[in-house]
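Annex B, item 7. Sequence and structure tokens for protein A, then protein B.
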Amino acid sequence: MKPALRPALLPPQDEPHPGLESRAADDDHLAVRTWLRLLACTTQIEQDIRSRLRERFGTTLARFDYLAQLERHPEGLRMSALSRCLMVTGGNVTGLTTQLEADGLVERQADPQDGRSWRVVLTARGREDFAAMAVEHEQWIRSLFEGLPLPEQQQLYELLGRLRTRPPRSG
């Protein structure tokens, strides 16, 4: 059993934000160090994107993700489907829907297949606003990965895909 307090791996001196990787110790398994590095990269990218969305468009990542889901489903989505796509609670989706509807970006329409349900769709303004954000968002993401040559980006993508589709192990 490892002691509770262990000396952490020190990040390279030129690394400005060691973040979650600093939790790893020299004797941690490669899988643990890899997990912490993935988490640190995800957190760093997410923080950067959140900041840029706030500064450039005065919006949040949650609102951007919500609009992105609706952009992918022009016929609209039921609130329950939005909740599953966004991996958040129904209450969060309801709150976002109310805000975005008040801003004129989405509207609720009666579901033609179930009169008791609503579908949420982008308005013309919502489509226009999202399109502008999406163009810049893609540029931001591309710039964050430009330090990796395209073949290495492809390799990373394929390796992460293998990890993601691996069947879960029990125990």
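Protein B:
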Amino acid sequence: MSKNFDVVVIGAGPGGYIAAIRAAQLGLSVACVDAASNAKGEPAPGGTCTNVGCIPSKALLQSSEHYEQAGHHFAEHGIEVKGLSLKLDTLIGRKDEVVKQNNDGILYLFKKNKVTFFHGTAAFTGQVEGGWGVAVEGKKTKEALVARHVIIATGSAPRELPGLPFDEKTVLSNTGALALGSVPKRLGVIGAGVIGLELGSVWRRLGSEVTVLEAAPEFLAVADQQVAKEAHKALTKQGLKIETGVKLGETKATARTVNVQYTDAAGAAHKLAVDKLIVSIGRVPFTGGLNAEAVSLKLDERGFVVVDDDNKTNLPNVWAVGDVVRGPMLAHKAEEEGVAVAERIVGQHGHVNFNTIPSVIYTSPEIAWVGQNEQQLKQAGRAYKAGSFPFLANGRARALGDTTGFVKVLADAATDEVLGVHIVGPQASELISEAVTIMEFRGAAEDIARICHAHPTLSEAVKEAALAVDKRALNF
């Protein structure tokens, strides 16, 4: 006997669980299906973000930052620490507890909003009377569902190096890199993107010698290059060895080491032997098990579910959101799409503005940006003004003892509309929200400059950068 729902969401990551909750808030009967389990076999909703991505990595970044501060910076504050030691099992255990709290929180939200949760995998069985048939199968679950609408939110998986599969022991994806049993003496990282830099930073702080190899000729080519250069300088000073323009050669893994051959940007050959190798060369959309072929769900040449501007697939009443579709693979982008699709299903006008989706890298210093950078504006031939302000001149940053970096505001030369904001420095991840808000309302640099900011705060650096667009910064 099948169970009927207005909406069945496949996947309980940020896009999926948020879509399910919003659809339920709008009065629809909703089911959400997710197969993830924790070490005890219990449901672990939240997707990659909660289980092996955003949340656990931030927990480890915070713990490793405390360790770094205690070992190297507390003395500046008159705090003496003797006999400092690391209990890695406690550190990892705290990370696991943070993850579980988030898992449990999502299950609570499902219950609160009357979303029916099924622990298992979901596959299309075909069109049926009333919508789409969806088969659910898990260790303790076997159900036949009928959905008037289906939202695919199955996320993504880490991309492997050709010929070097993940074993999560010596060759690590983000999953293995978050659960090491000891601090590796020598750690290699392939890919200087968000995952590589964040996890490389974690283990560098805890004592690893970290070498990051990046194929692109420029460091953080997606970021504003002034920001990228500042970040590169800071991370290198901390001890990360970062090489760009690298061409990988033969890479072999043994039970204890990974040997990487590569040529550097100048063409010189090198051999790198590491105890662990993190491979972070991007992610691929995950559609395995959906039975997409049976219902003729259209995928593109890279495996993404094809959708239009409203996240509709080629199948009637079947939608897709998050990492499995075009656009940046960011949890907050998936959430926005999830809400928008739920609202579109009931006839509302869901809104996602790709131009104001912020990007953040949670290294130290943090790196955050929204909108266009200087390279993009120059390439487009857009006339613009730029204003920047260093954290070195910010009172709150001095008090924190972290004055690395700056804020940069880019505005249209004629209208003063904010076109992009780029931050490298303390709490950039929090500061960027003001820029997102201003840009969503198509505000001007003058608007930021005229708004009163509390003193002393890091946010004053955003105001000063906006003032600098008109060459009237007050504190620099």
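Comment on protein B: The mean pLDDT is 97.
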